[in-house]
Prior knowledge:
By secondary structure, this protein is mainly alpha-helical. The chain has a domain at 52-124. Helices cover 76% and strands 0% of the residues. The protein has helices spanning 8-42, 47-50, 53-65, 72-83, 88-127.
Amino acid sequence: MAGFSFAGGDTDRARRLLEARERDRAAFEARKLQLEEETRRRGVQPREEKYDATTSTVDDAVTRRTVGLVSKSDYGRLRREALGEAAPAAALAAAPAAAEQSERQRAAQKRKAERERSREKQRQRSALSFGDDDDA
Length: 136
């Protein structure tokens, strides 16, 4: 196939397709720049800035400070402290005591809920009586 050559029409067709592809690529790039500009004007964060490294650093700091289950308010307080809005030394001293207290509260609530469930089951059982049928 070393001696194979394109006919004149095939060469022209290939050149036209290549030019059309280059025009399409230029139009695509122009549209892409236009969309990026619209995004900037609307105040939307670019993808590159959306996933900030600080978030993972803060999460790592909160994770190191917590052990076990933590209430939502405790987690929020620890997160604010990790961001630098409160004193970190006070958080380290108060976190274990608060976690232990919230653990006790959760256990007490769980026991209370179990008692209520068993009482409700007992009420349902006593309500079912088949001896009181008045079919006579």
